[in-house]
Every structure is written in structure tokens, then in C-alpha cells.
Write a structure and sequence with these properties.
3 domains, Ferritin, mainly alpha, single chain, 80% helix
């Protein structure tokens, strides 16, 4: 019986291999293959401790296979985002455990993003451009569109399910439920999409303003900016003379110097602000609507108690699937996560149904 730790390593090994197979940049593909070998080694070590035959370490979990399918359909950047989040969670868990048990922190516990960076630096062809390319890819998927899709659908389903059940309780599943449900779906989707547009747009405007100020400082006081950059490198542990040499070299190209200063001083990556607010708003609208239409659908072709029962059934199935989908990121048990999601959703709907019932009776 494979433990959870072994399965996590097997899954990571499998996914890194898939990333390598679909990576067009040979340098980055080589990094993925090495990471796959590292994860395989971890699995073998755990297996020996558990007295599990090594030949049994061949099957990835349904979660890993599902992520691979998502990668085939939507691109492997999605898979990389989930995988890197998993690596961070594992390393944080190890560090927390060691601190709790007062064990020595060796530095080997740090996440594999740093391992990948170190591997890249050792490649003869991997200069700063390759490292920057890899890191920008990771950052571009850090927000994780898959997670946004799941959570967007979850918001739409739970909020509209509760709304529909509240009106159903007050009207015994009458025609008002359909009108209210569709109105709730539209209002919620518009609210979510507008909120997403404002969030993305305001962040872009804030970053763009900060970047403009940094460019003005660079043009008006290049020596001061050069000293600041050198101090940043010194603070990172780079020897003082080398830090000043690095800053001197960077300042020879104004556009490159601006990019580095924005990254090092402000913590802003220019790639991160290129997203489209309109695209984010559209996706948010669609994802919320998909979840919100589920509890309303039965009222399109029936009414009364039958429609209420079907709405609860459809919503429960949707909630379970969302709970199961969440395990793609958490690696928790599918049944536990799915059933928990169903219970929370049904509890919220039951409360609003009861309130609606009380209001309906009081109005009679």
C-alpha cells in the first residue's frame, strides 16, 4: 500500500516527465527530466523505508493523470502552476515539521523552484536569459487559471443554489424561482466580472505608475539608482566589489536597467501586468454562469416539488465535482473533499430554504 508521500513523489515524477515531453526548449526540457529523476529517487527512498517493492512505483494517481489531460487540452503551463504550488507546500510542510521538532534546517528543504534554478545555472547554455525565461513562465501560471475556474464555478453554484432554494421555500417552487434564479445568475456574473476587471485594471495602473516613477528616477539620478542596485545585491549576500560591478554593467543599458530596478526594488515583473482586464472579466462571467445555471436548470422544464428535488440533486452533484476538482491543488482525499463540499452547500441551501419557508407562510 503506497503512502501519500510516495504517491506525491510518483505523481511529481510523472508530471515532470510529461512537461519534458511537451517542452520545445531543450534546456528547460532537460531541467524537467532531471527533476523527474529527483522525484523518482525520493519515491525510491520512501519505498525502501516502507518496505514496498520498487516495481510497484509505476502508477500515477488519478489526480496526476487528470492534470496531464488538462495539459493536453489547455497547455502544460497550467500543469506547471499546480506542480510548483505542490512543491512549495511540500517544502513548507517539511520546514514546519523540522522547526516543531527542533531539528536542524539544512537548506535541502527548500522548494524545487530553487533546485531548478540551480540546475539551469549549471548548464553551459543556460545564461540569465534562460533562467529569466523559465521563471517568467512559472510566474505567468502562478495565479492558476484552473483554480480560478473551479472557484468561479463554486461561487456561482453555491450563491445561486442558496438564492433559488430561498425563493423555492417561499413559493413552493413556483414560477418566481426561475425568474429569480436567472436574475441572480446574471447579476452575480456581472458583479464578478466587473470586480475582476477592476481588480486587474487597478493593479496594472498601480504598477505602471510605479514603473514610470522608477524610470524618471533612473533618468534624473542614474548614479543614485546604481548605488541602490548595488546595495540590493550586497544585501543578498553578494561581495561588495562584485555587487558594484554587476550594477555598473546593468546600468549600461537603460531599458534593461529599468527592468532590473523594477524587479529588484519594487518586486514587479513586467510580464505579470500584461494580462487583459477584459479577458479576465469575460472568463469570470462565464465561469460564474456555468456554476449558477446548475440549480436553475430544472425550473426551465418543470416546477414545484419535482423541480426543487432535481435542483438539489443537480447541485449536490455539481458541488461534489467541484470538491473533487479542488483536490487537484490540495491532494486531499476525493471523497472527503467532495462530500464536505456537498454538506456545506446543502447546509447553506437548507438555511435559506427554511427562511424562505417562514417568509412564505407569514405572507399567506
Amino acid at each position: 500500500m503506497k503512502t501519500k508521500s510516495i504517491q506525491t513523489e510518483i505523481d511529481a515524477c510523472y508530471l515532470y516527465q510529461k512537461l519534458a515531453e511537451h517542452e520545445t526548449d531543450e534546456t528547460i526540457a532537460h531541467v524537467y527530466r532531471q527533476m523527474s529523476d529527483i522525484e523518482k529517487g525520493h519515491a525510491e527512498v520512501f519505498a525502501k523505508k516502507e518496505n514496498i517493492p520498487l516495481e510497484n512505483l509505476i502508477q500515477p494517481s488519478w489526480r496526476a493523470r487528470t492534470l496531464n489531460t488538462i495539459g493536453k487540452l489547455f497547455g502544460y503551463d497550467y500543469v506547471l502552476g499546480v506542480l510548483m504550488d505542490t512543491e512549495k507546500s511540500i517544502s513548507n510542510a517539511v520546514l514546519t515539521t523540522k522547526k516543531k521538532n527542533k531539528l536542524e534546517i539544512t537548506g535541502a528543504e527548500t522548494n524545487h523552484v530553487k533546485v531548478i534554478r540551480s540546475i539551469l545555472e549549471k548548464q553551459t547554455k543556460s545564461a540569465g536569459a534562460y533562467i529569466s525565461k523559465f521563471e517568467s513562465r512559472h510566474r505567468s501560471v502562478g495565479g492558476n487559471a484552473i483554480r480560478a475556474a473551479v472557484l468561479g464555478g463554486n461561487d456561482g453554484l453555491i450563491s445561486n443554489f442558496s438564492l433559488v432554494m430561498g425563493v423555492a421555500g417561499a413559493t413552493a417552487g413556483g414560477e418566481a424561482v426561475l425568474i429569480t434564479g436567472l436574475a441572480g445568475m446574471l447579476a452575480g456574473a456581472l458583479s464578478m466580472s466587473l470586480g475582476e476587471w477592476i481588480s486587474v485594471k487597478s493593479s496594472q495602473e498601480l504598477y505602471e505608475n510605479q514603473m514610470q516613477i522608477e524610470m524618471e528616477e533612473l533618468e534624473s539620478n542614474p548614479e543614485g539608482e546604481k548605488r541602490e542596485l548595488a546595495l540590493i545585491y550586497i544585501a543578498k549576500g553578494i561581495e561588495e566589489n562584485q555587487a558594484h560591478q554587476m550594477a555598473e554593467e546593468i546600468m549600461k543599458d537603460k531599458s534593461h536597467a529599468h527592468e532590473v530596478l523594477v524587479k529588484e526594488e519594487l518586486g514587479i515583473n513586467a510580464e505579470e501586468i500584461k494580462g487583459s482586464p477584459a479577458e479576465a472579466a469575460i472568463y469570470s462571467f462565464i465561469l460564474f454562469s456555468i456554476g449558477a445555471i446548475i440549480p436553475v436548470a430544472p425550473f426551465l422544464f418543470t416546477a414545484g416539488t419535482q423541480a426543487i428535488i432535481l435542483s438539489v440533486t443537480f447541485s449536490a452533484v455539481g458541488l461534489f465535482l467541484i470538491g473533487a476538482a479542488i483536490t487537484l491543488f490540495t491532494a486531499k482525499n476525493v471523497w472527503y473533499s467532495g462530500i464536505r463540499q456537498v454538506l456545506f452547500g446543502l447546509a447553506a441551501a437548507a438555511i435559506t430554504f427554511g427562511i424562505g419557508k417562514l417568509i412564505g407562510v407569514s405572507l399567506l
